[in-house]
Amino acid sequence: MTQLNNLDTELAQELGDFPEDDLDVVFTPKECRTLQPSMPEDGVELDSHVRDCVQTYIREWLIVSRKNQGNSDICSLKNKGSRKDFHKTLQKQTFESETLDSNDPNFQAGPKPVHVLPEEATRTTLTSSDFDLRSLQPDTRLENLLRHVSAEEFERQNEEARRTNRHNELLALYPAVDEEDGVEIRPVPDRPKEHLGNRILVKLQTLKFDIEIEPLFACIALYDIKERKKISENFHCDLNPDSLKGFLRSHTPSIDLSTQARSAVFSVTYPSSDIYLVIKIEKVLQQGEIGDCAEPYMVLKESETGKTKEKIEKLKTQAEAFCQRLGKYRMPFAWIPISLTNFFNVSTLERELPETEGLNGNRSTSDKRATLLHARRLSERSLSSEDNYPVSNFKTVSLTLNTFFKQEGDRLSDEDLFKFLADFKRSSSLQRRIKTLPGTLKVEISPAPESLGYCLTPELLPVKPFPENRNRPHKEILEFPVREVYVPHTTYR
């Protein structure tokens, strides 16, 4: 409005007058899940425009809402409840034809002019069988008929008259418009917030083998074998006793809080029966082939005595020497997959995208567009509060795994892993083709609550609430979704 006077006269004529009282403009602080917002590290020099972009992640929301936009019949009907039961709340109407006595000899069947009468009508009605004008009540006199009234007062009186005895839900009984047939759908959007998929909490409790000669480490990630993609970053976990941790003391002068986590929160935006939790076991790098390094775990047991015990002590001494020299480096040792089919309600979500002709198959432009729109609907549905049914609604499950697959030295790539997982899903013959190691791994898998407490983000920022008197934090693991997630970025990463 302040710029309107400075505009070109011809341009100003094309601008319509805007009702100023329709807009409500407010500043609202952004919700922050963490104790401190994610920002670049101190001392990092940024260009001015980059710095301005980063500031948008912590700047207040400027929310412009229209006061009259949410007052339509449909919006108020949604607030009141189901359209199905709405007719029960309507005022009953009495029609003139219903007041006639069908036993009257003058009663004639057939159409008659019908006038709607409120039940509280007090004056007698003129019907086709009643012409006694003297018994009728006079009509209400029109007050101030000839009095001069200003246009503003006239508008006010008309406004009051329109609102008198007015049905709140005038068109509510009309069937709802199908969403696909709607000409234009303009819902008021929620404030953008950080996207979180279907979250599961994985706790590693115990990792043991028949012999204990060196520190071993667990590395967990999610894989989608149908999409042939790794869909999460790695979660590294140290379950070693203090006696074995001492082997690496020279390489770990300080221990960060985040490295003590033994439970991880994984997020899955597009659940399916093809997702596997793969737990890889790693050890400190040592001389020799991977297969040779795993051989003692297949043939020796801690409970045996005599020469076996001497071999174990010798292997322990060798391992300690390798830890002192190469303690910073790791090598693969064994792995084990866990199917997550039972931990998601995939019966309603099973690959809602239409099947295509393979990953590199030929698809028309319309097919690609339909697939993209379908993915977008799935993404939006996972974010909407109305349609968001619980996908991770399983009970806490404790698993004890007693067999590990030995890592083969010539099959270390993700492509090899996807082939193994596909064979593992189809049949159990994988155990006969790949050598196994005896051991024990105890894992607990449960739905992750919204407010977990004492949790770190993938950027290692503390999430509210974050009590200081706990030992081991939980750790959120960053997701790599298999398809686009249509959500604006709201935090600096």
From TrEMBL:
Per the record, GO CC terms? Answer: cell leading edge
Q: Name one GO molecular function term.
A: guanyl-nucleotide exchange factor activity
The record places domain Dedicator of cytokinesis C/D N-terminal at 2-98
Q: Which domain of life is it from?
A: Eukaryota
- Pfam families per record: DOCK_C-D_N (PF11878)
Q: Which GO terms of type biological process are on file?
A: positive regulation of establishment of T cell polarity; positive regulation of T cell migration; small GTPase-mediated signal transduction
Q: Which residues cross the membrane?
A: none
Its name, as the record gives it, is Dedicator of cytokinesis C/D N-terminal domain-containing protein
Instruction: State the organism of origin.
Output: Nothoprocta perdicaria
